[in-house]
């Protein structure tokens, strides 16, 4: 099976590295220079002290034709719009598309694209891109995937080879799957990004933990969560299990990149608005992260 | 007139420097070493490119007898408790005490001390202590003072000589005076401390400004403010006029010191509680600053 990976950020490189052991992978990059580096040196995966090199073909995104059996779209949510426009103008209508964006803001956009089967996924690996062709994986994780539209046949076939070293689990309900991830991201990411702290600090510092629980109360209220205790426990467990990690949003702020705040808190605020509910803390944290994005590149 | 200054932080050094031109000043320090430095080299005041040296006598706080005509208590709010205990055990009952703490949390404590006249003040100078005997004054400012208990005679006499270069203005209503300052501090200090930004960023970054106005709404609600527009305008003006300044709370966080958060947001939260009102943003920001204090000395 031929698999295309759209986007060569941390998640794109991570997937290319693992998946290329079982499938023929073509990774599509934003720049020619990155494609050149990957073609020349392969993709380096660093995991603890272990380093693996995977020889993967790369092309600039402008060369994508849509012919692969599966294309994994691994760009950030805020880069998705231009990719979706591209998809609707590909020479071939894609058979299977898997979208790996955080949050739920992109679901409405996916309804409008042409493809036979559309899948969504939620990635729980911690990874960061060290250079054009090097990705660092910290901690074990998994990927959940589910059908958004169409049937699951290809998804089953795709997920089978990686069970042990790179688990890809097919879930029944895409909405519940993404919601679960959204709740975790909404609680952990903005706070760590605003405070510049590691995930573990949100539970180890009891003042920060107080704010985390108050924020979670607002999230529960907006989403009408019934199993609140379970969700809060999941958030706490993730903070503990990834105590030394910096959340993706914190890493984005530190690297002067845009964050996924619109896909996460923006989605929840729109939901609050739709239900006529107030969410003063969510709103504060949303604007604080937006403000931090605006400070990008400024010396403080 | 003999004036004692209790505490040789930025405000104590600043006052000693200016006041010693008209009065006989004794500054009381926490450590013997600092008293030694001040006695040997005087106090250096840096204001822009201008430097002034004032020869001021200094003693460790343990030597304070309470005999001066006026004692100015210039310690931080969280150091006040031990000073108040000291006052109640001085060999002489002090004639006149002027307290320069931020916030309003200390007012209840002042009711219990023995002294003929008690004054409170609110300092609007920007100053930071560069070393044991050097203070840097950035920007022009003034000091407001008012009677808390007793009569104003000495206050008038004390404030008269400094009108131009170091204005000390006697106000009629101590409560209104401190409240005004509290509102400004509550809006500006926690946000700048959490975000690590200068005062001007709160109005120049429109996302941060949105959070500032939402926070101000909660402050207004708790204090039942009538002239909201005026207060908000004052906050905005101060942010603009001190755009390049770091708030005292930010400087405290950056220097790994405790902040005055309890005197400022703590006071407002207690007030909200007393009235049965909710203040979710104030509460979040209170705990975020408390959490930041707890991170002191940790490497992030």
From TrEMBL, chains A, B:
Pathways per UniProt: Cofactor biosynthesis; (R)-pantothenate biosynthesis; (R)-pantoate from 3-methyl-2-oxobutanoate: step 2/2
Top-level taxonomic group: Bacteria
Keyword annotations from UniProtKB, A to Z: NADP, Oxidoreductase, Pantothenate biosynthesis
One GO MF term: 2-dehydropantoate 2-reductase activity
Residue stretches making up the Ketopantoate reductase N-terminal domain: 3-148
One Pfam family it belongs to: ApbA_C
EC category: oxidoreductase
UniProt domain Ketopantoate reductase C-terminal: residue ranges: 176-293
Family: Belongs to the ketopantoate reductase family.
Its biological purpose: Catalyzes the NADPH-dependent reduction of ketopantoate into pantoic acid.
Name of the protein in question: 2-dehydropantoate 2-reductase
